[in-house]
Design brief:
Strand content: under 5%
Number of helices: 13
Radius of gyration: 26 Å
Mean pLDDT: 76
Shape: globular
Number of domains: 2
Low-confidence stretches: none
Amino acid sequence: MNRSKGVLLALVVIFAYLSWQLVVPFLQYVLGALLLAFVLYPLQERLERRVSPTVAAFALVVLAVVGFIIPFVLVAVVIADDAANILAAVDPEDLEIAQLEAWIEEEIGIGVDVTETVAGSAEQIGTVLVEQTTAWLGVFTHALIGFGLTLFLLYYLLKEGDQLMAWIRDRTPLPSDVQEDFYGELDEVMWAVLAGHVLIAIVQGCIAGLGLFATGIPNAAFWTFVMVILALIPLIGAFLVWGPAVGYLFVTGEPLLAVALAAYSTLIVGVSDDYMRPIIVDRYADLSPAIIILGVLGGIYAFGVMGLFFGPVIIGSLIATVDVVDEHYWRFDGDTDGV
């Protein structure tokens, strides 16, 4: 490598690092835009046959706001209301505070006023919250800017997505057939995760939630949302919610409802997974449950909420890349330019 190439590569590394620093504060929103663009791009291609790319992209951004974001906000409001109801329904007398104070005094010999301690802690927390108003305002402003950035990026990813992919292909030193194979594998992985796992998790959670509503489980909307999230993790799924719900019905003197909920959740929810997963997943790519579990859990730690989607995609993409390398690597023996 001569000095000129070294300088150019150094500049690429420097500016790539600086660009990454600019993206990191809004990484969640950028990933959200990429996810929405991937889902909506097939519609963009169809609409461009009838209208201009600009009109098509703008229409799909409006569709994303109406079809994805507004329902998400409404669901979040309902869940927050249910969570508030759960807290409001807690009766201090049910907590047996007097017995707890007596037990503490008996065990350690120190009298403790739990109610006064909790009230004092709440007052201190309230003071801290008031003092952190500026910080909360900053968080709200950041979220508002991030939301606008998501819509802005989504618009241009849809409008100029084909140009972006052409630019990437032109600058990738691989033969066109290898690139076709590589991007085809990545496309299959993305749809396998989105359609084969995210969609199934949403359907499973909603089906299980119907059982909660029908049997009168309190705050069913909140627990339905929890089941949708848990259903993203294979082998664990919604049982962590409907299982305790069955126990709750038994304890509260509703054995028939408990049996009905257990039967419904076991048969209907379980069968829905057994039938939907092979049909949907096998249509795109077969991803092991181990990949999904590791991707979901590791993705949450690495990327936050968006890691639920991109975690399994990253691991699946690694496997797809290795498959492409295994198939084509021999072709580049002695190839000095990679084309």
